[in-house]
Amino acid sequence: MTDTLDEVRIGGLGASRKRAEDARFIRGRGTYVDDVVLPGMLHMEILRSPLAHARIVSIDTSAAWAVPGVRLVLTGEMAARRNLAWMPTLSYDTQAVLATDKVRFQGQEVACVVADDPYIARDAVEAIVVEYEALPPVVNPKQAMEPGAPVIRDDKEGQTDNLTYRWDVGDAAATERAFAEADTVSTLSLHYPRSHPSPLEPCGSIADFDVATGKLTIYMTSQAPHIIRSAVALVAELPEHMIRVISPDLGGGFGNKVPVYPGYVCSILCSILTGKPVKWVEDRSGNLTSTGFGRDMYLDGELALRRDGKILGVRMHVTTDQGAFFADAQPSKFKVGLLHSAFACYDVPVGHISAHGAYTNKAPGGVAYRCSFRVTEAMYFQERMIQAAADDLGMDQAEFRRINLLPDDAFPARTPFGFLVDSGQYGKCLQLGLDAIGYQDFVAEQAAARERGRLLGIGISTMTEPLGAGNSREYDILGIKMFDSAELRVHPTGKAMLRTGARSQGQGHETTWAQIVAHELGLPADDVVVEEGDTDTAPYGMGTYASRSTPVAGAAVSMVSRKIRAKARKLAAHLLEVSEEDVEWELGRFHVRGAPGRGVTIQECAAAAYTNMPDGMEPGLEGNAYYDPPNLTWPFACYIATVEIDPETGVWDVLRFVAVDDCGVRINPMIVEGQIMGGLTEAYAMASMQFQTYDGDGNVVGANFMDYLLPTAWETPGFELHEVVTPCPHHPIGAKGVGECATVGGPAAFANAVLNAIRHTGVRNIDMPLLPDRVWEALRTGQDYSGTPPVKGD
């Protein structure tokens, strides 16, 4: 007999293996776009509009050209001569690269300067004189759709209003019947405010067009380098095989680095015109005012209810603020992302969702900010509606959820909007969370505290998120199906290199992908090097966003490893001089059936692939896999927060926060816990402090980190983490994904807790962020507080 490998010891599934990438990051040895220096490189700065809506009367660039060291001053008119003043968006709209007719949001790109160093470029940008004719700005979609509102996209032929799209899903007639039969109807109107992903590293690119070869190399802060390459080929009219996109280390992405931005296109055009590499790295204000936002959605929601608490139907109408251009990064056929994943964890018979979007004088929004395409809004609306319905019925909020959550024997379950939810233990997760927080004891304490003037609250959020978009029957971006890929090469010494079409920006791919290979082949994870982000070497993939890593790219890693194992089995049969049918596998080793002591290791098979292969077998031990998921994966979570509010100031403090996550099989528990804690921190920020809004003139309130607040370790509460494991039935290793769940489900737990603390006042809603002054005003007036822009003046 031989000893079987210990999977955890070699760094396979379940090992809390330290992140391989941290060895360079904690030493300051990461390579970001701004670290790349090319011979003869020039620097680009962008002139941005100070106004939200204005016609361009003239642009005088003469003073900029006169600055010593300036190599190029580019305007929209010059770009238009090369058919590059406008570009397509990922939502089949058009977006200005450099404004030609008018500016449509504060911070829009108007011109750019290329110079010998960034300081000269900045000085020259400030020398450009632009004469504007101010136009009335529109800062929310309800204003935009009013009769007589100024038409923002008057560049589009036939566009006579500010409507972006209309979309609906569900059975309207059946839903109407359910509401007619209801004992009561609970209604709620909400605004999920505009949020900015705020990655540690802003966006940037270095374009290097080689005049001699005609090849364009772009170093870029991109979560989806292959999609960017295809888009650049369309925009710049260059052959795709002559474009190389390299996405080096990314300082966070969160969806912000999926779209194509005007700065990327400008750097490419400037490199072509100058014949030199051109670097552009935006500053923080540029990132906050002009790059992709998330959220900014309005809800009018209704639940049809029986007296006993059973939900009979749901009806939702949403309005999205798209900004000046419809530039959402989302699957083509879903105009409002996967918003219709709402109520997927509840047993709701029928539902109908209608949606429309509007252009406004704001930067284009709608990126999948740490969520699977608008699912954050879906889950927030869902859980706020659930809380309000429980209050309207006079029911305990936990019991109301328990009555309506899908039971374990209901799977697979079809949602009222057509999704198939395949597995889960929702009731178990809820009960584990309630027990951990001491729910009944807290409710009793809450009642006693109120008698003494203390305001305690408890909020629950039970949610499921569809991850891994998605199967080729339904999901594409720009017509490209949303598969993903992996290529694995095992060298003669048994060491391996793995390349995938995904792109990590903090998820730990270099660590976890190697762990999947270790699980499938028995190679120690330390013997597997992972590379991503270079379109010249990586297989074509859709990139990393919307929690696609483990559900799709991770599955591709598993499948390519199994292809390698299948060939290795043939090599083992040759080495052991038996038929392939007589070879059995255990982790890291093949042996003869019935004779476990007679075997060969995977490393020995790798050597044979190059030195002793059977006749007729192709040498080498490598392969690739493209994974088209059969369904989305459906992780579930229960988040519970307890808070106390100071009635004199409206300040609220988090007392405890319990998180129960079921993300299926966990590859690396330590990384999973880190993802959950980071996601909950972002959820807390959205609920309590992040404030990206606009005044009546369209000026951005939140263009710097003095106004757009990010929580530090000082403000962030502690989190208590628990787990339930329900393997995904169709994923190769049973994993579901977890990177976004806490950001998606967490905000409602905080908001519900605050509203629960003051429900005796009659206040049903305070829009996020629940700033102390909003809470205080709601307490003082007994009225709901709307956070709809423009912000109130002094």
In short:
The chain is of the alpha+beta class. Helices cover 28% and strands 26% of the residues.
Task: Tell me about this structure.
By secondary structure, the protein is α+β, with helices and mostly antiparallel strands. Helices cover 28% and strands 26% of the residues. The strands form 10 sheets. The protein has a 7-stranded mixed β-sheet, with helices on both faces. Strands 9-18-16-15-10 form a 5-stranded mixed β-sheet, sandwiched between helices. A 4-stranded mixed β-sheet has the order 21-31-32-35. A hairpin with a 5-residue loop joins β24 and β25 (496-500). α10 runs parallel beside α18 (741-757) and α14 runs parallel beside α15 (549-576). It is globular, with a radius of gyration of 28 Å.
> How much strand?
25-35%
Helix count from the secondary structure assignment: 19
Given helix and strand content, the structural type is: alpha+beta
Write down how many β-strands occur, each being a DSSP E stretch of 2 or more residues.
35
Assign a percent range to the helix content. 25-40%
The gross shape turns out to be globular
The major beta sheet can be summarized as: 7 strands, mixed
Low-confidence stretches: none
- Please give the order of strands in the largest beta sheet: 3-7-1-14-11-12-13
Average pLDDT, all residues: 96
Q: Gap between N and C termini, in Å? A: 80 Å
Radius of gyration: 28 Å
